[in-house]
Structure formats: C-alpha cells, structure tokens
UniProtKB/TrEMBL annotation, chains A, B:
Task of the protein: Catalyzes the NADPH-dependent reduction of L-glutamate 5-phosphate into L-glutamate 5-semialdehyde and phosphate. The product spontaneously undergoes cyclization to form 1-pyrroline-5-carboxylate.
GO function term, MF aspect, one: glutamate-5-semialdehyde dehydrogenase activity
GO biological process: L-proline biosynthetic process
Domain Aldehyde dehydrogenase, first and last residues per copy: 15-298, 304-425
One cellular component (GO) term of this entry: cytoplasm
Protein's recorded name: Gamma-glutamyl phosphate reductase
Reaction catalysed by this enzyme: L-glutamate 5-semialdehyde + phosphate + NADP(+) = L-glutamyl 5-phosphate + NADPH + H(+)
Organism of derivation: Flavimobilis soli
C-alpha cells in the first residue's frame, strides 16, 4: 500500500517542541485517568460537587479574569453575540456549577455489562463499559465549555485535555486552576483536567496528532472548526453538529399540524443545529404555501424559494429566488429555503442530495409515505409528525449531551455520557486452551 | 483553530484525475447501497448463495486468472508463504464459496431495535440498527479477502469498494466480475461490489480521502498497511490486528495450568494476532521457569529473556538476552520474550508500557490478583485462567469475524457483522412541538 510519506514527514516536522510538550500533557492525563477509571460512582459524584463548590467560592476571581478576556475581545472588535457568549457573571458561574451538580445526579455509564454469555467450553464472557481514558476537546471562546467538558469527562471516568479559544485564555486558565485545586482536595490528581491553551495554535495541532495518547477528540464549535479537526486529526474524532435539516409536507398532511411544526422547527430557536433550514412541499399540498409563507413573513423570517413557491406567495411576502447555495446552507438564522416537489420520491432525492445527515421530518397522514420516508432517508434522526427541535440529548432522555453526532462510527445523533466510554471483554476460565 | 493548510492543499493536489474516478466509484456504490439497505434478509441471503454458486461455476476461470498472478509473483521473487496465500485451487474456491453460505446462515444485524422509549410528551423513540452505506476495504495479496469482504458487506446491507494488492490483480478482477454478474442476475446492482485496483496506489490514496462518500474504511493486512491507513485516511477507520499479547503467571498460579496455557497461547498457531508474545512470571513463581523454558525449547521456540530468566534456564536451553525491542515486538513466530517481575504491580506496569491493547491473560488462584488484573489493564480483552487464543469472533460466538479492533471508538476486540452497521433514531409523534 502506498504511503503519502511527504505529508506524513511534514506533519511530523512542525513544532516539534510544542508537540513533545503536548504529548507529555497527554501522557500525564493518561496516568491520572487510571485513578478515575476504577473509581466508584460515589467518588466521581463527590468530586463533581466539590468542583461546583470551588467554582462558586472562586467566582470573583473567575469573573475578574474573564473581564480581561472581554476587554481584549472588545478592543479586537469581537461581535456583540460572541462577547455575550464569552462573558461570565457570578450568576453565570453559578449556573455552570449547577450543571456539574446535575451531572453528578445522572447514572454512571461505567461498569454496565453490555453483553455476556457462557461459551460451550465453559468460558464466561462479559463485555463491560469502561472509560475511554483521555478525551481531547477543541472548542472556541465559551468558557462554560471548559467546565462542561471537564464535568462530562470526569463523570464518564476520563481525563480531559482542553484546547479552548485564545479569546477566553485568561478565563480558562483560572477555571482550570480552580478545578485542579478542587480535584487535589478530593484526593484526585489535578492532571485529570489540563489545558494546553498556553501552547497556542501549534498546541491544537499537536493534540490532533497525539494518537495513542488521546483516545478520542471532540470538537465543539462552528462548522469550520469541526471540519478542520475532522480533516487534520489522526486521533479518532467524533464529528458533531452541522444540521441542514429538512421538513417535508406531504400531500395528505394535516395543514394545521404542518404549520405548527414548521414555525417551531424554524423559529423557536434559530441558531441551533436541529432547526429546519429547508421546507419541501408536495405539489398537492401547495395550498399550504400561502398560509405558511404569510406566517413565516409575519414572524420576520427571510424566505428563499423556487419559482412555484414565489408564484404562490401572498401579496407583500417577498420570496428571494433560491439557488443551490440555499439548498446547501445551514442558515442558523430566521431564514428558510422553500421548494415545491412533485412527490415523495422528489423529496427524498432532494434530501439525499443536500442533507448533512442530522434530522429530517415528514408531516403526513399516509402510512406508506411515513414508512418510506423513515426507511429510505439516511440521517441520524428521522421524524414523523414531530418538530426537528427534539433532536437533543436532554429531550431524548439521555441526560447530559456531549453533542449531536453526524457521523456513523461510534455514535450517531444525540450523544450521552455512554458515548465517552468504550468496552472491554473480560473472559474467565479454569484453564481452557484452544484446540 | 489552526488549519495546517499546506498539508490539506497538498493532499488535494495529488492525482486529481484518479481521485475523481475513485470518488465516482464510491458515489455509484452509495446509490447501489440504497437498494440493499432496505432489502429484507431473504434477499441478501439468496444473493450470498447465488454468489457462492457463481464462484464455483466459474472456478476454472478464476483459477486460470490466479495462475497469472502466481506466475508473476514467482518471477518477482515472492516468498513461499505469500505465494501460498495468493494461490487459488478449485478446492480453495469451493471453501471461499462455502464461507459465503455460512454468512447467509448468520442472523441479520440490520433492523434490530437497540433502544426505544415513549417520552413524557408522547413521542415514540426507536434506535434502529441500519447499514453503514459504503464500506471500503484495503488489503493485501489474498484473493479470498475479496470474496470475504464482499460477503460481509452485503450481509450487513452495505456496498463495498475494494482495494486489493497489485499482486492479486488478475484474480481480483475476475472475481469481482463474477460477483457483479451474479448480483445482476439476482436483480441487484453490480455496483454493490466494485474494485479500484485498476487505479493502482493512487486509487488507494483517493479512497482514504473519500470522506462523505465512503462511510468506514477497514484495513486488513500487516502492521505497516494498517498504520498507513490509520494515519493517512480522513475516512473513519477501524484499526485492527496488531497483538502484542501478554501472559502473566502469578505467584499462586497452578503451574500445570500455566504451562498448558503458555504452550497453547504461544505455539498452537504462531502467526496470529492473539498469540502470546511475552511471558511475565512472578518471582515467587520462578520455579515455573525451568519447566516452561524446557517445554518451549523442546517445541522449537526461540526464547529471549532478562537476566533472571537466563539464570533459571536448564542446561541446553539457550536464552537470548532481551532488550526493549523484544518487549515491544509482535514476533508472529515461534519466539517469545520472558521476564521475571517482582509482583502484580510490576506486571501491570510492564503490560501498560508495551502492550498493543489486544489481549492479556493472568494465571492465578488469587481472587484479588485476578480482579486487579482485569480492572487495571486497559486492553480489548483480559483473560483469567484462559488462553489468549480465544480472542476471536468465531470463538466468542459472534459469527463471521471482520477483524479484531484494537481501537476504542465504535468497536473493540472481536468484531461481528453488527460492527459494519450504525444506528438511526426514528421519532413518531402526532404533532409535537418543542416548548
């Protein structure tokens, strides 16, 4: 088999010094993770409560450090939205601490026996859920993710290596120090939660190359960040997040139900991955469009549409001609693409062409249509007569959400704590050998 | 987040033409896979039987094409072992066909409901097992893998794109043609089983870059091949195979049991990943060593050992001084590294340092030792009082074996057909929206 050795050796040649230091961080995380891997739930939950207490006790110090980040962000022209996500107040620190207490209340995924049997030769097999070991997180300028990621990792028995955005560097430095001190007070190693922010961007690159030291890498943030990690990492990655979700209104759809689901899926919260981005309408349900377009426009939504959609728009509702860019765009805004399709086949074909594989929904009264929609679409979640906004770990009853996986390996759709674990086979015998 | 854009653009610049052609193969595989994704088990099993019949009917043509490969291999100085693996006879073609019939007899993993519940708001959730879509296989000069991979993929509802070694090119070309014709006779698309061997090495590189078109890549072959795919692929990979397995004989071990397990694990079959490569002996069980070393030497095994081991060797048994190279080597031969350790902690520390995370075994009568060994070692399979040779899909009762995963994401240890599937959430409602 061919090796693209140029690429490999170039990868190896960048920032050797930083690479070695980041690898050393990961090695210390691995050693620390062993203390937690066999710790019973009580130890982990007590640690989570201690971390929460420490954050609240040190809220003033954290908020002061955060003020430096916010000031720098403002100077650098950060947008109001990003500044808001970056900003910590004592109340927000309290909410972050509460999230850790909620994690403590969730069941522990570690130790579950997934499968087991006794073989004909008497060997007793158990497949047990165990921690991954070291989880890497690469994320952007939201200091709450620092605590969130640490909590998720610890609850599932893992150590975590954090690479946050430089915009939150001062906040993250203080938070990681506070968490580390609290861990040590609980008799656990501070190395369980480490940041590599001090190494800057080369540190992030090194983390993506720490195969064998870091067991899984979870990027959290915008599409660019996620795609970079997916493409560059040789550490196994769980891809999350991008949701170009579709709603198909079938010929037989209850029009009122369709309208409620459309408005909820598009507008209840617009900046999220489970919001609908494209509405497809069966041509026999075209009577739905004037009502739907009016409602969207009244709610302030911008509508992009094909010619048929435009021709059905009531007076005063503007429909911007849609292009392929609209079919592929995740607007993350009060904006929607609308298309009239000939039938279910055309709807399925459109979704197969443009979907990111996150969530699709059909509104229909027809059993055969619902069954074909569900069977023939290859997305993480497929809904019948329900809003796409339900695609969420909390809504699905999985407890804390790590993210929503749009890949097929290891995890698909909303991910709970179990997705930060792997399994181990344990075989008990009394001297069996293979014949 | 930093993008190593040089690396990315260089990747994109190699062999654009081949890349596009391989991507086109993958796209056709994706389209073909849809026909199979919703096919009931009966259709898939009938196809597997038809493929088996076709291989037997065309055995002469296949063996003739294979003779060209064998002749070329002999001219190129291929070793006897590799030539043997490459060679097909009518009998061997029959055995390969029989393996397809055995696959047909296995349960279908597709359609299993993994989890399900009704939420407080009345939404009905089901998490269903569904095919991956397109499976890529990169392997070496063993034409039986061509059929094996095709059968595993089809049984689990997937299309497959094959990149075999150039040494088996003539055999693979004929086999893929025979399989394609048989599929079409069954009313299934020939594109379900495609080879990209005609594109040579650049084709393999392109396959590793077909993220979004190929859903999972499974390398099968030697350590070099597997490591190349793991490092170079941006398609998610399941890493298989390398087994630096350990056997620890505890102070309390039944010496007879330890000897039987040692000889079985090391010598029953030496070229396999679940064979033992290092023996660790508790110093209080050092009396085991003279007997064990004699038995190993009598069976023709080469022994590498530390000083204590050498000092305990009976007259006439040669012990080659062991170095770190021995502790890390997967010999895949009648060769073993032996070390005396102070206690269980030292054994665990040695295994953590050198193991590839495949299989470790302890022989002991002590409950606490067995529990610590099992809990503290982070390998895919950990055995108590049983040979490492049991780490195998067939032995574990999983049916057909795709390989043995030594990674933690998606699959760990012996993999059955279920590991070539993913899941899909299906949500049924009656108009629910999120509040």
């Amino acid at each position: 088999m061919s090796v693209d050795s140029t690429t490999l050796s170039e990868k190896a040649a960048t920032s050797d010094d930083v690479t070695e230091q980041v690898f050393d961080v990961a090695r210390r995380a691995k050693v620390a993770s062993r203390a937690l891997a066999t710790a019973p739930r009580g130890v982990k939950d007590a640690a989570l409560h201690a971390l929460a207490d420490a954050l609240v006790a040190q809220a003033d110090v954290i908020v002061a450090a955060n003020a430096d980040d916010v000031e720098r962000g403002r100077t650098n022209g950060m947008t109001a939205g990003l500044l808001d996500r970056l900003t910590l107040t004592p109340e927000r620190v309290g909410a972050i601490a509460d999230a850790l207490r909620e994690l403590a209340a969730l069941p522990d995924p570690v130790g579950e026996v997934v499968r087991g049997s006794t073989l004909p030769n008497g060997l007793r097999l158990r497949q047990l859920r165990v921690p991954m070991g070291v989880v890497g997180m690469i994320y952007e300028a939201r200091p709450n993710v620092t605590v969130d990621a640490a909590g998720l990792a610890l609850k599932s028995g893992n150590a975590v290596v954090l690479r946050g955005g430089s915009a939150a560097a001062s906040s993250n430095e203080v938070i990681v120090r506070v968490l580390g001190e609290a861990l040590e007070e609980q008799g656990l190693p501070a190395d369980l939660v480490q940041s590599i922010d001090r190494f800057g961007r080369p540190g992030g690159v090194a983390l993506m190359r720490a195969r064998g030291l870091v067991d899984v890498l979870v990027p959290r943030g915008g599409a660019d960040l996620i795609q970079t990690v997916v493409r560059e990492s040789i550490v196994p990655v769980i891809e999350t997040g991008v949701g170009n979700c579709h709603l198909f209104v079938d010929a037989s759809a209850d029009r009122d139900m369709a309208l409620q689901i459309l408005l909820n899926a598009k507008l209840q919260r617009v900046g999220v991955c489970n919001a609908v981005e494209t509405l497809l309408v069966h041509r026999e349900a075209a009577d739905f469009l004037p009502v739907a377009l009016s409602a969207l426009a009244s709610a302030g939504a911008v509508v992009h549409g094909d010619e048929q959609t435009a021709s059905l728009a009531p007076t005063g509702v503007e429909v911007i001609p849609a292009t392929d860019v609209d079919w592929e765009t995740e607007y993350l805004a009060a904006e929607i693409a609308v298309k009239v399709v000939d039938d279910l086949d055309a709807a399925i074909e459109h979704i197969r062409t443009w979907s990111s594989g996150h969530t699709e929904a059909i509104v229909t009264k027809d059993l055969a249509s619902s069954e074909r929609f569900v069977a023939e679409l290859d997305s993480a979640v497929v809904n019948v007569n329900a809003s796409t906004r339900f695609t969420d770990g909390g809504q699905f009853g999985l407890g804390a959400e790590i993210g929503i996986s749009t890949q097929k390996l290891h995890a698909r759709g909303p991910m709970g704590l179990a997705e930060l674990t792997t399994t181990k086979w344990i075989v008990n015998g009394d001297g069996q050998v293979r014949s």
